[in-house]
Design a protein that fits this description.
Blueprint (H helix, E strand, L loop, with lengths): L9 H19 L5 E10 L3 H13 L5 E5 L4 E2 L4 H5 L9 E2 L2 H7 L2 E4 L2 E5 L4 E4 L2 E10 L3 E3 L6 H8 L8 H12 L3 E7 L9 H16 L3 E7 L8 H11 L4 E4 L4 E5 L4 E4 L2 E4 L2 E4 L3 E3 L1 H5 L10 E2 L12 E3 L4 E2 L6 H19 L10 E7 L5 E11 L4 E13 H19 L1
Parallel strand pairs: 1-2, 1-8, 2-5, 8-19, 10-11, 10-16, 11-12, 18-20
Antiparallel strand pairs: 3-4, 6-7, 7-8, 9-17, 13-14, 14-15, 21-22, 22-23
Length: 418
């Protein structure tokens, strides 16, 4: 579709990542398991994990902090739709974890976590064990496909691109090679990672079709009746800008995906495609189920909504994996990481912190030059024990909002790695 290069050769990228991910398990079998100890161990190097690690060390430089992440580098999901649509290269989205070691003396372990043994207070990796005093789990999402096996093949051929890394590289290549035909994009019911992201992605791909004058049509199949956020802004953009390019199908459930015939079957009929972006339902990482933090039938980990602490003292779950009053997003995980870092540092000093209520800010592109936004503040009602939101949306698409969107993202990245 877009002939702008992604700046990364997919084969080289996947081979490199595979080599990195395989090297640690092979080494683990050649020597006795190591056992280390840290005051705080953080599992997951996304927005939540990196923020927690940095703010722990920023306030308490002498603290021993270990950050464990399987991926060799950080990639931002926020703004990744810009990359898919050819509005930016991949490089600005990616950061080295070595920066955290060099600047803040955070011990980075590039390894796969095989298990968490809460009774022994250890994290088991492919290279050994790491004991902890405090544990922060921010492992993100898994795709919830156990009762829908047709998604398995689809994950291979129709990458969702809701986990950072190779999924985005593959989907980008499919878009670049696309010369025309039908595109199918599906959206599950919430909760899923970043509520506006599928709607933004559909708008940006439609914008590319319009810009490049391709003979193509998008079938945007939504399990919801309307977008869960900024519905006015998205729907106005769709009907004003893309009514001849895209068909928006609402309240439609995906029932099957035939990757060989390239057909998506839904409750509203069958849709053939040339390329597809099939986004399955989501749940918390299976690591948390194995650790015993998810009860049978639960999709997300229950936490104290004021502290993000689990039922196990000094064990926290933040980011997309937790059941929170905040939506599942990088910005939310970033805010939660700051709060948990402050709480752990206070406990180490024998103190407690005042209650803090976080807020939410989201931006979304609706064309290649214009964006909309939403912000929500929360107040905790002690009587009903509920969080009461105060919600504001700016659904007027503007180029100035798109510029603020980019500034917002770059500000987050500076706060993570600067």
């Amino acid at each position: 579709m877009s002939k702008k290069s992604s700046g990364v050769d997919r084969r080289e990228f996947l081979v490199g990542v595979s080599a990195l991910s395989l090297s640690a398990p092979l080494l683990a079998y050649t020597k006795a398991p190591k056992r280390q100890k840290a005051q705080v161990v953080i599992v997951g190097g996304g927005y939540g994990g990196v923020t927690t690690a940095k703010y722990l060390k920023k306030e308490n430089p002498g603290l021993d902090v270990v950050l464990i992440e399987e991926r060799p580098f950080f990639m931002s999901c926020p703004m990744s739709n810009h990359f898919l649509a050819g509005l930016m290269e991949l490089t600005p989205l990616c950061f080295s974890y070595n920066v955290l070691e060099a600047k803040y003396d955070i011990r980075f372990v590039n390894d796969k976590v095989l298990g968490v043994e809460l009774d022994k207070r250890v994290v088991r990796t492919s290279s050994g064990y790491i004991a902890y005093d405090y544990l922060v789990l921010s492992p993100g999402i898994d795709y919830d496909i156990e009762d829908k096996p047709f998604y398995r093949d689809s994950l291979v051929f129709n990458p969702p691109a809701f986990k950072p890394g190779s999924e985005h590289i593959y989907l980008k290549r499919l878009i670049e090679d696309f010369e025309g035909g039908d595109i199918v994009i599906t959206v599950p019911t919430p909760p899923y990672r970043c509520p506006p992201a599928p709607y933004e992605r559909a708008a940006l791909i439609a914008s590319m079709i319009k810009r490049d004058k391709l003979k193509a049509h998008i079938y945007f199949i939504d399990a919801n009746e309307r977008p869960p956020v900024n519905s006015e802004g998205f729907l106005t953009a769709y009907y004003d800008l893309y009514k001849d390019i895209a068909t928006y199908v609402t309240s439609a459930q995906v029932r099957d995906v035939d990757v060989h015939k390239k057909v998506v079957s839904t409750s509203h009929g069958n849709f053939k495609y040339e390329i597809a972006n099939i986004i399955p339902p989501m749940k918390a990482s299976s690591l948390l189920e194995d650790a015993g933090l998810l009860k049978k039938g639960q999709k997300w980990v229950e936490v104290n909504p004021l502290t993000f602490e689990t039922s196990v003292r000094n064990v926290f779950v933040i980011g997309d994996a937790s059941q929170s009053y905040l939506p599942k997003s990088g910005y939310a995980a970033h805010s939660e990481g700051k709060l948990v870092a402050k709480l752990i540092n206070a406990r180490l000093r024998g103190k407690e912190i005042k209650e803090e209520f976080l807020q939410m800010i989201c931006y979304a592109m609706v064309s290649d030059r214009e964006a909309i936004m939403t912000e929500t503040a929360f107040r905790y009602d002690a009587v009903s024990k509920r969080f009461i939101p105060t919600h504001r949306e700016d659904n007027q698409r503007k180029e100035s909002t798109a510029r603020r969107y980019e500034e917002w993202a770059r500000g987050l990245w500076r706060d993570l790695f600067g």
